[in-house]
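Handoff note, outgoing to incoming analyst
You'll be picking up this chain. Sequence as last confirmed:
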Amino acid sequence: MNQQLAGFAPAPVATRMENHGHHMVKVAMQTGNDLYARVGSMVAYEGFVQYEPNPPAVRQVAREWMTGEGAPLMKCSGDGLLYLADYGADVVVINLAGDSLSVNGTNLLAFDASLQWGVERVKGMAKFAGQGLWNIKISGQGWVALTSRGTPIVVDCGRGEDETYVDPDALIAWSPNLKVKGKRSFKAGSLIGRGSGEAYQMGFSGEGIVVVQPSEDSTDRLRARG
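Most recent structure output, in case you need it:
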């Protein structure tokens, strides 16, 4: 039996954060190199790892992010191996090397606590959603793990002159330097998204990438603030 299960054993640690299969991320924890992770995402760990739900640094930032709820992040610290997942969603691991990424909060699984992060208003979308839409901007040197409902596609917006349009319900992340605008469509309600009637898309242009998941079923998308 052990031989039959050997193929599912984790590979030797090669880096701070890496995939174990498509639906789980393995994080090599070290004292002083803390991690923020989505509350409830821990599925296993080895060694000594402690968890602090809704730490002060998260509460301060989350006042703009959440309304009447605790921030869905916990601080992880200690030494060992930490395994994270989110209901079987695909996990995408990114190493930011001084780069920035604007992430839909519901697709944010984990990130190094040393990274700079905060809530930002999505420019160009206020007239389409009341007071506007909000995202989480992460930048600096460190690792980020995102979730996707299925294998995502990464669109390079700088490859052509045409703008890239995305259903907000399928949007995971994008380069913050991209220009963003909204587009309304009254006839595409039955073709785009899961709603009916009026629909809108987000248009991106410039040099950068857009990460899109093949699903529109998540109920907690970019938050509209009224």
